[in-house]
Amino acid sequence: MADDATRRAVSQIPLLKTHAGPRDRSLWPLRLKEEYQALIKFVEQNKEADNDWFRLESNADGTRWTGTCWFIHDLLRYEFRLEFDVPVTYPDTAPEVAVPELDGKTAKMYRGGKICLTEHFAPLWARNAPRFGLAHLMALGLGPWLAVEVPDLISKGLVVHKEGQRETAE
Amino acid sequence: MNRLFFQPHQAGLSKVEAAEHTLRNINPDVTFETHNYNITTMENFTHFMDRISHGGLEEGKPVDLVLSCVDNFEARMAINTACNELGQIWMESGVSENAVSGHIQLIIPGETACFACAPPLVVAANIDEKTLKREGVCAASLPTTMGVVAGLLVQNVLKYLLQFGTVSYYLGYNAMQDFFPSMAMKANPQCNDRYCRRQQEEYKKKEAERPKVEVVQEEEEVVVHEDNEWGIEVVSEVTDAELQAASGTAPDLPEGITVAYTIPAETAASGETVEETEQSLEELMAQMRKL
To answer: Which keywords belong to this entry (chain A) (predicted)?
Structure first.
């Protein structure tokens, strides 16, 4: 699985209670509220740990999510847009997170910018569904992916820092 | 299956478009309907289910069979969800990430295991993974493995639709050792998918209502004619004695393999051979011409 820091972060994210996907007209709104609750908690925890690294929001019915994630490398802040659809088989299957700006720049990615997760992710998600939610997807999926890929992309010159995003360490 | 049709001149087309073009060239009498979208999203899934239930040979009727040739777990789960809900029989197929194994599976909602009844099955490889896995590389791709699995799938489809042979419920292919495990898996009463559970209930009800069919031993009636004016008898062309003389020993073969015919060890010299002759070849040729 991921390293200790990730494991610790994940264990603090509240688990979700309602087993419902987007086709479940009666229970999906409840699940959606739980998703937002867990995400808000997670972001607050990140801020407290001085590791605030993403924002997410959805459309009205919670089926399409967009946001930004950022990564600090060598005192510079790199920002990327992210997006995903909630699949009909959610929460038994996890959404496929996409970082469109990085499409084609790394082998660890599918067409359209969908990130390729390690083989540990799918069994882990399957074992914890439906208690895992979008916050867990961020912590276990996107977070580790960025941690591995971004420094590599920067060192290869495939990702270049945009002007005006300099951030000094506290 | 989902990429075997691509040819270099089709670069830029979607997989389904390229498949349609290639297949249409092979057989123009087939009707095609192509859609290129992600079936796991809410809007596409509704359309997908609609086409399964109304896109049969006669528009409005459901299709006879669905064949899953997708390359990821999420898409398979979506197909499984749709087929469980619609009670649609389908066959699932796939090739492993390391491209050295594959499988086909027949799924009858309520009767057999659905795709969600058990965690994903893996055809045992019996190889040291280190010889296959390389750092930084995700998946391998061998069109040969895919070709074999595609052939197995279509063969199973033919047997199913035309009702001959034994339709496999699950057939695996281990390319490294050429091993083909097969089995059948019953539905899981605690399956996560509630439509699967519902289909299981309906299936149990149907089975209970079916009248018990008694297996009757069919006796082959010996054909006897009322009269036989000419004394006609049916005999074998070869007598038993001749058959014995013509057979040799059959080699020791594993079950399922046999020889087409055998050759006896000793060829009994039963006829005259040609005589010794002083004549030359040219003389014999001349003799022939004079005949």
So the answer is: Ubl conjugation pathway
